[in-house]
Structures
1.
Amino acid sequence: MRIAPTTREKINTKQHTEGSVANEIAGLVVHKFEKETHAKGTIVPRKTVIKVTKPVQRLVDALHGLYSDKASKGYGKFEDNEDNFPMQRRVREYFIDKSSDFLDFSLAAMGILKGKADDAPLSTGGYVLICHLVSGERNYLLFAIVTETLGSAITENLDIVDSEHVDLSNFRLAGRIDLTGWTEKIDRYIGFLKGKKSEQVSGYFRHFMGCDDAVLAKAETQKLTSALQAFASQNIADVKERDAWLGKVFDLCDELAKKKAPFIVEDFCNAAWPQEPAAISKVFSDASVELADGFVPDKAALSPLVKFQAQTNFWKVEVTRKAFNDGQAVYNSKNGTLTLHNLPDDFKQKLNAEEQDE
C-alpha cells in the first residue's frame, strides 16, 4: 500500500482534511490481511512502526475525520469475557501495564482479527491500519481496513497513467476505542461502523474489538428526540413549519416503534431531511450525541417531539404543539402562565359542580 504521494500518484485526502485539526500520532502501523470469502486469512505483518510524515498525517487525519462524520455507528464497551474477546487484555498490556510496545500490540490485535474474520465466511481482507492518536486531551486507538483503488494521474510530461491510491471513499470497516473514556470507566467508549452489509461481516469486526453493544432503547430514543428538537430549532425558523416537521419525524419513528423495526440512521436522514441528509446525520454523529444505529425506538420516549408534559404535586398537564399553533393553548412567558381554551363540556361541568358546592 502506498502512503507517500509522488508527482505521479496522489492520495485524495484534501477534501476530508480542510479545516480540521491534525491529530498527534503516538503510534501507527499498517499490516496486510489477505483473505477471500469462504477462506482462511493470512497476515502479512509490517516489521516496524511507520514514521510520521506529512502524507501519513494527512491520511490519518482523513480517516479519523471520515470515521467521526459517519452517522451509522454502534457503541458499547468491552465484553467481560477476555478469553473469548481478548482485545481488552491486549489494550491493558499496552496502554496501562506498558508490558508490550505498540508494534507488539498491533501484532496481537492482528491475531485477534484473523480469528474473528476466519469465523465469518463472507469477510475479506485489506490493509489494516492501527493507530494510537491523541486528539485534544483524549487518547484513542483507531482501527480501519482500507483497500486500494485504481485511478489516473498526470505525469510531469503531461502523460496520463494509472495510479493506485488508498480508497477513502469506500472504507466500511473501522472502529475506535476511547482509551481515556475506558480508564475513566464511562458507559460507552468503543465505536464501530455499522453498514448495510451482512451482519456477519460488520459483526466480526465488532467481535474483533471485543465490543458489547447492548443498547438501551429508551436512552437512545431520548437522545434522538433531543437531537431532533435541537436540529429543528437551528434549521427551521418558522414555528409552524418547525412543529410540522417534528410531527413528521415523530410519525417516522412511531411507525418503527409500532413495527418493532430498527432505526437506521441513513434511511431516516434521507426521509426526514431529503434536501441535505448529511446535515442531520452530522448531528447524530456529534461526540455529544453518538446515536447508535439499529435500536428500536421507545414509543413513550418519542412524545416530546409532539407534546409538552409537566406536573407538580397539585396538577399534571399535557399539551400538543398543535394546540399552541391553533391557539387552543397560550403560554405567557412574561408571567409564566398557561391558558387553555375550549375545555371539554364534561370537564367544565365537573368544575362548575365543585364551584356550586363551595
2.
Amino acid sequence: MRGDVLMAETIAHVASDKEYSICARSWFEAVLTGGLSELHEELRQEPRLNKPQDDESPWGDSCTLWGAMSVHQKPTSGGRLSLYSIGAWEKFLKGLSRGPHYAKLEMSPLDVNGKPESKIARISVERLRDDPEWVHFSAIANQSFLNWQESPKRQNDWASLVQGQAEVQRSSFGNVTNDDIGNQTALEAILPHSVWDTILNSRQELRGYSWVTICAAEIAERLGGVDVLRRTGAFYEVTKLSYGGLFLRATPALNEYDDVAVRKVFEALAPVLLSGRTERIRGYEHLKLVYNVDAADYR
C-alpha cells in the first residue's frame, strides 16, 4: 500500500574515497543500530541463511530474519552478495574504503517455510553514475515490518538519525517521509525534472519538502535563516546545523503531518523549491504536496 513505507534519504558531495568510507559506514551503522535496532538484534542471533536459488528453495530457517549485503564496485559490474553474519557485516563495512558505486543491506522476515515475506527493510548508498562524488544515502522499511505508524519514538529516531548523518556528511538535502518514489522526492515525481540534475543542483534548489527536510547552507541563507523560518509557524523544529544547513521538522510526529501542515511547509520553502506546476497524477494520490501551484510564483 502506498504511503506505508517509512523512508529516509540524504544527499552529499563526497570528495574522496576516504570521506566516502566515513560517510557510508556511518550511514549503515546509524540506520541499522538506531532506526532498525530491533532488526539489528535479530540479525546478531545469526540464524541459518541461504542465498536465493529458485522459487522453491528456502532462504533460511523458518520464522527468522534474512539479511544480506550486496556491493557493486562499478556501475557496470555485477553485485557480490554476502549473507549476514557478524563477521561478514564487519568485512562489508571495511570494504566501503574501496569506494564502491553501490552498496546495500537488505532484510526480510522468513515465513514458516523459510520463504521471504512481502516485507522489506533496506539501507543503501549509491554514487551518481556520471558524477560519482555525489552520493545518495537511503533507508526504507515497511509499516508491516517496522510498525512505525504506531510509534512516535521510532519516527523520532529516524528524524534524529537523519539530523546526525547530515552533520557527518554536510548534506545538501535530506528528508524523512512516507511518499518518496524510489530515488525521487514526491515533488520530483510529478515535475519534469531529472533526479540526477536536481541532486547536482541541490545546493541551489530544494528537491522537495517533507515531514523532515534538510536544506543546504546556501538554501538556508536564501530563506533568511533560522529566525525567519521559525516566525513562519510552519515548523515544530528548526535547527541550524554546524556547516550552515538546516534541519526542519514540520510536526512532532509524521502522523500529524496533515494537509494544513503540508501547505504551511510549502509556503515557507516555496522560494527555493523546484519550479513547475503541480498536478495530481493517478496512482500518486498519497503524495503529500500542495497541488495546482508553481513554486516559481512565490519568488
